[in-house]
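Backbones bend. Our protein:
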Amino acid sequence: ARALASALRSTDYRGTLLFASTGGVYGNTDHPVDEQAPVQPVTRYARAKLEAERILVDAAASVVIARLFQVYGEGQRKLVVYDLAHRVHNERGPLTLRSSGAEVRDLAHVEGVVGALRLLLSAADRPQHLVVNVATGVGTRIDDLARRLLDLAGHRGREVRPGPDGDQNPLKASIADVSKLRGLGAEVASVSDASLLGVLNWVAADAS
C-alpha cells in the first residue's frame, strides 16, 4: 500500500482507486455491523488491510474502500466454501470441521461482488472517499454450510462433527450491515444452492 500511495502522489493520478479491503477489520460482531462501527481486527491480515485503507485514503484523490466479507466461487482454492466443498468431494465418512462449526460468516459469491463493485464505481452520487461493506447482510453458520454442501452433493447420510480445535478460531462471527451498499444502488444476493453447486461441480472437475 505504501508503494502504491507513493506512485499515486508522484503521478498526480486523479482517477478513482478501488481497494479490496476486508470485513475482518471490525473483528468479532454479534450483529450486522455498518461502516461506522469501531474497527477491532483480530487477525494479522485484517490489521494489514486496515493500515492499507488509511494509507490509501490519505494518498488518493478518490478512493472506494470495499470491505469484502467472505467471497467464494469457482476458481478460488481457499477459504471455507472451497475447503468444505473439496472435502465433501474427496473424503468419505463423517466430515470433521476445522472449527467448532458455530462460527458465522457473511458469504457472497464472486459474481455478485464484482457486479456490486462495478455499480459502486459508476454511481453518480458516490462520495470522493467511500468506505462501504460489500456483502449480503446474511450470516451462515459453518456447520449449516457443511450440511448444505453434503445435501447438494447427495451425501445426506454423512455426519458433520465439530473440530477438535474449534475454539482456536479468533473470528467467531462476521456479518455486514449493507444499508449503505443498497443506498448506492448495489446489492449482493445471499448464498444460493446454484452457486454452491457451481463450486461443488468445479471442485469435482478440477480433481478429475
Q: What stands out?
A: The radius of gyration is 18 Å. Residues 137 and 176 are 5 Å apart (CA to CA).
